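Lab channel / #folding
Pinned by the channel admin:
"Please post every new chain as: sequence first, then the structure tokens as a reply. Keep commentary short and put observations after the output so the thread stays searchable."

First post following the new format, from NK:
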Amino acid sequence: MPVGRPSNTGSTTMANQDANMAAEIFEDADAFAAALPPAGRLLGIDLGSKTIGLAVTDPARTIATPVDTLARGKFSNDAATLHEIMEREGVVAIVIGLPLNMDGSSGSRVQATRAYARNLLARLPRPVLLWDERLTTIAAERMLIEADASRARRRSVIDKLAATLILQNATDRLRANGLTSDLK
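Reply from TO:
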């Protein structure tokens, strides 16, 4: 079910114009999938208070790959950087981790994430899926510890690895329901 839809202002590229038709925020993967074009990459975002972890899928939406970890700054600067990455990678939609409490309730971080998603949608009109991210950072940390990564290394890659797990979980759900591209 769509959560919000800001008005579309300003000029957009040709790639964005198709996405503008369904530029909404979703919490339901089926509704999100219905808003997607047949092919194109998805961008995964793990939104932290100090950093933003990023990952992208392949065009067939099969495999998520870490891209970068951005230091959070002024929203307009962050949005400009995300826009550059999205244009370069051919991103058609966004998956943002939703930090629900363990009991499924919403706290202040969920409210902040929803606000960020609304602001991002206003600047970068693409379908946005808010995906339950519970335990993804813990899973990413465990993976890095098992790989014997140093604390400094873990700190430098944890957010983009968490974004990769969020995005992979979302794409796995889409694939399980037959809701992804048929590209091979």
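NK: The first strand starts at residue 25 and ends at 26.
TO: also worth noting, The helical segments are 14-20, 29-34, 75-89, 108-123, 136-146, 151-176.
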